[in-house]
């Protein structure tokens, strides 16, 4: 059955189809080779652990977790900057739920809330607009984060704020772009990769064309992938076929969602509101040029960075935390000295342990807990 004939989520989890794809992977993988494939997107990392996909792959296929979890790549200094604006008692700090437990140097937004800061969870940027309309005597600052997946909704929110002339609302823009991050990883001297399971969510907006340079210049195949088990396994089949044939092309496994040319309306909204920053700091990857978005001057009234004085300090991660190495795929989550002892999902030290898309949290929640349960079981037997 071809993937485009599948219509329902259950079909992408069908054991028979999954076994067929796994057999095909075993058939295509050259036993004399070790394959290192990077899944760029945090959603893929989560699915790989959740569905135990590593367990059905041959040992010579290693999946490297990439930088596609936006919470994980945000440096601590930006969290401190956002929280510093909300020290002003007239300001309401609004953000998505996954930001709430991300540690800053003086604690997470949730810990600041416990100390009296007005911190609110919103489910979309437009909820933050409603919050501003409901609190005309206060200022609502929305902490915007994410790749090109979420940047269009922030752009539309800014356009709406401008059309409403909403004076008590601003956005602290932390949107980043995926292509420069992939480029930085490929430039990393300690990184050897054979191909990429490409990001499905981001590609619904940017399409497939921006990845063509990877295939052309870096000679690495890239398969844009969906998030169900069968999607990911089919993408690995497509990568192995290309590697076997000595090819390096961009392919789209996620055709049911990702248009090759992307979403023109979303791209137009982003172009109206954002421009590239000259450089931006990424946790674990350092400063990457033209890798993030800032709000254009025509929207300056709604740019929190322009309205407030922010410290803009660079903050290094706690010394023993090895988030940078894990983010670059140099270390596996469990190889970090703090994993599972000082750093757990309940008490995260690094951002990779906070977001469900973070590789440390995904590994902890699925692999680590499973191993711990099996160990307890055999101890009590
Ligand atoms: S275990 Fe914690 S400190 Fe270590 S890499 Fe993961 S998130 Fe960072």
Mean pLDDT: 91
Task: Spell out the helices and strands N to C.
Answer: HEHEHHEHEHEHEHEHHEHEHEEEEHHH
Low-confidence stretches: none
The CATH superfamily title of the largest domain: HypD, alpha/beta domain 2
Q: Per the principal axes of the C-alpha atoms, what is the gross shape?
A: globular
Strand content: 15-25%
How many beta-strand runs? Answer: 13
The CATH architecture classification of the largest domain is 3-Layer(aba) Sandwich
Task: Give the count of structural domains.
Answer: 3
The N- and C-terminal alpha carbons lie at a distance of 44 Å
Q: Which strand order do you get reading across the main beta sheet?
A: 2-1-7-8-9
Largest sheet at a glance?
Answer: 5 strands, parallel
Helix content: 25-40%
* Ligand species: iron/sulfur cluster
What is the CATH class of the largest domain? Alpha Beta
CATH topology of the largest domain: Rossmann fold
Q: Which structural category fits the helices and strands?
A: alpha/beta
- The helix count comes to 15
Radius of gyration: 21 Å
Short overview:
This protein is of the alpha/beta class and 381 residues long. It contains 15 helices and 13 strands.
Notes on the structure:
The strands form four sheets. The protein has a five-stranded parallel sheet with strand order 2-1-7-8-9. A four-stranded parallel sheet has the order 4-3-5-6, sandwiched between helices. The protein has a two-stranded antiparallel ribbon with strand order 10-13. It is 39% helix and 16% strand. Strand 3, helix 5 and strand 4 form a beta-alpha-beta unit. It has 15 helices and 13 strands. It folds into three domains: 10-68 and 179-252, Rossmann fold (3-Layer(aba) Sandwich), CATH 3.40.50; 76-174 and 262-307, HypD, alpha/beta domain 2 (Rossmann fold, 3-Layer(aba) Sandwich), CATH 3.40.50.11740; 323-380, no CATH class. It starts with 14 loop residues before the first helix and ends with a helix. The chain has helices at 15-28, 42-50, 70-73, 76-85, 109-114, 125-134, 151-164, 178-187, 200-206, 212-218, 229-244, 264-273, 304-307, 323-327, 359-380, and strands at residues 35-41, 61-68, 91-95, 119-121, 139-146, 169-175, 195-198, 222-224, 250-252, 274-276, 279-282, 286-289, 293-295. The model has no long low-confidence stretch (mean pLDDT 91). The protein binds iron/sulfur cluster. Residues 321-323, 326, 333, 336, 338-339, 343, 349-350, 352-353, 360 line the site of iron/sulfur cluster (SF4). The site of iron/sulfur cluster has 14 residues, from helix 14.
